[in-house]
Amino acid sequence: MTTSPTILSDTKSLNVNSPGAEVPSAKGIDGEFSQILAEHDGPIVETPVVEDEEYFLQSSFVFFQVENSLFRVPSYRFTRDSENFAEMFKLPQADRANVEGASRERPIILPDSISCVDFRNFLKALYPFPVAVTLSLSKAEWLSVLTLSSLWYFLSFRKVAIAELERTGALTPTEKVTWGRDVNISSWVVKGYQELVQRANIVNKNEALGVGYETAFSLFRLREQRIADGARCFDHAANAIDPVEEEFKDELQSIRAEEKKYAPKAVKGRVGGITIECTCADVRIDDGAKGTPIVAKGKKIHRR
């Protein structure tokens, strides 16, 4: 059995289909709304719409030419995560259409020292496809990220690349030395030297070529000292670093001086970040110290 629709008013149920039923007038309904509105003090103020601090991106697309390949990516990663690129893009531009990087006809041409493979690997970290919490890159790809993040002072991505390469233990002792020198990571250089001195096998020809023959000779001398001393001065944790630190003091001081440029410092605001890598390291950190700026000159990016 189908029931007729009813309108509830106070405690009465009124069947509008019943003969003689009274239907509330529009005037009565308006009166009730007026009474409700009258109970509110003052005018109703609309909440203003504001821009989100993190996800209102001031972004356009930027074009890069690396070797014979053209890349087009959103600019926000370069402006938010690299103080160098942020400064470059803030330069006053009279004609936006003619700005380097604004069109495929006028891309930012990177120097020959940067390979297409390295730049593509770097973009995998900046713009991962598919988007995922865990970013899985190979050893070679992480080294590309480390190289370019160090060159352009993408401090958060440099930190992540270092952590991932250390976590996986992917680098050989010689690679720790050579990469530590190239991108100024003193702890890698020290660790590489220690491992070359303490292991059973002597430094071979290829390793000597990688670290330099003068360095190889110093490592051989430290190795002989370790054997003569019965490995005491190297094998105890408290003293393990001392012989290496003493032998390569000047080199390590120079590397550490450069390494300070990558130390984070307190700045206003925050760098938007993404949580990547297996360790769940959050790359949303304060922007770091300003390094040697990259400036537009001609059609290439040069370091001063």
Could you explain how this protein is built, in words?
This protein is of the alpha+beta class and 304 residues long. The protein has 2 domains: 60-170 and 265-304, Potassium Channel Kv1.1, Chain A (2-Layer Sandwich), CATH 3.30.710.10; 172-263, no CATH class. The protein has 13 helices and 9 strands. The protein has helices at 26-38, 76-81, 83-89, 116-126, 139-151, 155-168, 173-183, 186-198, 205-211, 213-228, 232-235, 242-247, 249-259, and strands at 6-9, 12-15, 61-66, 69-74, 108-109, 275-276, 281-282, 294-297, 300-303. The strands form 4 sheets. A 3-stranded mixed sheet has the order 4-3-5. The chain has a two-stranded antiparallel sheet with strand order 1-2. A two-stranded antiparallel ribbon has the order 6-7. Helix 4 packs across helix 5, helix 5 packs antiparallel against helix 6 and helix 8 (186-198) crosses helix 10 (213-228). Mean pLDDT is 76; it is low at 4-14, 236-240 and 266-304.
SSE series: EEHEEHHEHHHHHHHHHHEEEE
Strand adjacency order, main sheet: 4-3-5
Q: Give the beta-strand count.
A: 9
**Structural class category:** alpha+beta
Provide the CATH superfamily of the largest domain: Potassium Channel Kv1.1, Chain A
Helix residue percentage: 40-55%
> How large is the share of residues in beta strands?
5-15%
CATH architecture of the largest domain: 2-Layer Sandwich
Overall tally of domains: 2
What's the overall average pLDDT, rounded?
A: 76
Q: Mind telling me the CATH class of the largest domain?
A: Alpha Beta
Tell me about the largest β-sheet. 3 strands, mixed
Return the CATH topology of the largest domain: Potassium Channel Kv1.1, Chain A
User: What gyration radius follows from the Cα positions, in whole Å?
Assistant: 32 Å
> What is the number of helices?
13
Spatial separation of the terminal alpha carbons = 88 Å
Show unreliable segments.
Answer: 4-14, 236-240, 266-304
Principal-axis shape: elongated
